[in-house]
Each structure stands twice: as C-alpha cells, then as structure tokens.
Amino acid sequence: MRTTSAGHHGRGRVVVLGSASQDLYVEMERHPTTGETVMGGDLVQRFGGKGGNQAVAAARAGAETLFVGHLGDDAPGRTYRDRLLGHGVDVTRLVLEPDVPTGTALIMLNAARDNMIVVAPGANHHVSESDVAALADLGSEDILLMQMELPLDVTQTAILDAAGRGARVILNLAPYAPLPQDVLDACHLIIVNEKEHEMMQGDGLNAPDVLVTLGTDGSRWGDIAVPAQRVDVVDTTGAGDAYCGALAAALVGGAGRREAMVAATSSSAATVQHLGAQPDPA
C-alpha cells in the first residue's frame, strides 16, 4: 500500500474517516421490476461515497479538511485523489490500494428523480484500525465526521478513540445499523434522516444529541427547525452528505446550531440542482 506524502495540520479541522467511490449513473423512465430489463440513457461517471462527499462539502464550506480512507490504485482512484486535492482536501492519509478496485456505486435514476443504488465497496473495506491509529493527533478543536459505510469494528473503534482524545464526534448514522450504547454516548451529534430516526426509535437506541434531516421539510435539531430551500431538484443522491459536511465545517468554525443548519441547508440545496453527489460549482 502507499499513501500520499505526509503533512501537518493547523487548528480546528474536520477529519473525515469514510468511504470514497465512483458513482456510475444511468437515467431511465422508470426503475425495472424483478426480472425486467429496461432501456436507459448514457452511463455517466461521477464521484461519490459518503466520506468523500462529506469531505468535499466541508472543504468547499471553508474548513481545513482531512480525508482518511482507501481507494484503488487504479484510474478512478487516482482521479478521485486528484479531485480531493483540487478542492483543498488534505489527502496525506489517503491510501491507494494496489490490486484492489476503487469502490463503485451503481445508481439508477428514474424520471421522477428517485434513485435506486447498489454499492460494491472495493477498497473501502480495506480501511482498518491502523487507519484509526494514524489519527493520534486528533484534538479538542477537531471534529471527526463519520458515516456507516466502513467496516463496523473500525467505525466503533474510531468513535471511541476520537472521543477519548477530546475531539467532537459527528456520526451520520447511514446506512443505518444499530450501535452499542457506549459508542452512541461517545458521539456528540448523530445525524439521521427521517427513516433512519424511525429505525433508531424502533431499536430503542438513545443518543445524547440527534439532528434529523426531513427532506423537503428541512431539518430539526432539538427545538431548532430550519426549512428547506425551494429549488429545482435534479438528483438527491448527495443531499444528505452535502448537509453533513457543511454542518461540520460551520461548527468547527464556531457557528451556533441554527447558523450551522442554515449553512448546511444551503449546501444541500446547491447540490440537488445538479447530477452527482459532488457537482462542480456553477
């Protein structure tokens, strides 16, 4: 395995430990049913993975951002690394795995702009506790931002380790999976959508602080509610990731809850107006 050259950090980083994948889109009038073949449009390649998406969103929002993860040492992986660098993301702890493909998400988008997604994790499942050990310099001014697309044992270890070092931990509990109570207690904030929140409640999970994104109804964090912005929606794939990354960036910069939610809402609204989870700014 090899990584990019080493570097050092300043103060108040958003550190994203997470997945990075290429997204392969095909648009169609309607999704196929079981056993059915439908004709679609051209295959379009974009960048994705919840970790990569959130790192780009945080960097675009102005935060010093470090991405920790694994890509294949292949054309998609090297292109993705260069993209992260182009957005100002620190990739000194990004590993390019030889002989392992970059993770890939296959996304089917229908005329109503609803998506169906299947993910082949590829190099993402090579993230291990050695990557967590490389985060020994996390401090109280840093935010560790995580999701649930990495091996579960790595996610749990990283959360407990970061909290023990005094860093703030934000967990986007997606894709949803139940976690032990001590791991939830170590998170300063859990971000879920409405469905994931229902699943948490159904499993009897409690967390110290929960922010719920509500799609077209905006978002709610405790007694603070922020409405969604009304825009023409092209693709919702990266909406939640744009929200999480921008929220973390605002919080690490000293914003209050409402201010951070407003910034996150704007980031999400800008993202859904274009195809792909990391659309380039207009």
From TrEMBL:
PANTHER family: RIBOKINASE, SUGAR KINASE. This is Ribokinase. Pathway: Carbohydrate metabolism; D-ribose degradation; D-ribose 5-phosphate from beta-D-ribopyranose: step 2/2. The active site is at 241 (proton acceptor). Gene3D superfamilies: 3.40.1190.20. GO terms for cellular component: cytosol. It comes from Tessaracoccus antarcticus. Activated by a monovalent cation that binds near, but not in, the active site. The most likely occupant of the site in vivo is potassium. Ion binding induces a conformational change that may alter substrate affinity. Residues 13-279 form the Carbohydrate kinase PfkB domain.
